[in-house]
Amino acid sequence: MMRFKSKRFGIRFGFGKRTNNKGTQQDQQQKGFGNNNNSSSSNYEIKWELRPGGMLVQKRQESIGEDLISIRVSTFAHFHDLSIEATSTFGELKMVLALLTGLEPKQQRLLFKGKEREDDEYLHMVGVGEKDKVLLLEDPAFKEKKLLNNISTSCPTIIV
């Protein structure tokens, strides 16, 4: 019985065409066996990591600044364009918006895709992506309390 290797599998994992047992000079340089240090591919080294489940995988490269997304936060009067990490929570977004709007985080309600989002929900997990729109509303309870305070300070009570 003969076993055939898939051509795609063979090329991907280095079992491609060879001229002899040692491989071609180009294959040796790619694997780092060549003595010629002029090749930039000989400096490339694959790093591996062991996952908690015991799986050995190629280590991911740490990206700096690549996971920032630009979102537009709108209120009824204004809108704010800002960049934030995709792995941030809505609570962290509220803290950033507190600096921009003057509303405390507990006074804010954030809506995305028609649903109010909790502070512990992650932006990327609910689908917030590049150039998406998030709606910022003032919490009605705080709005009512603020109106009552304004009325009580503007109308002095008469004591007889």
From TrEMBL:
Residues 69-137 form the Ubiquitin-like domain. It comes from the Eukaryota. InterPro entries: Ubiquitin-like_dom, Ubiquitin-like_domsf. It holds the Pfam family ubiquitin. Residues 14-40 are annotated as: Disordered. Residues 21-34 have a biased composition (Polar residues). This is Ubiquitin-like domain-containing protein. It comes from Brassica rapa subsp. trilocularis. The gene is A02p006020.1_BraROA.
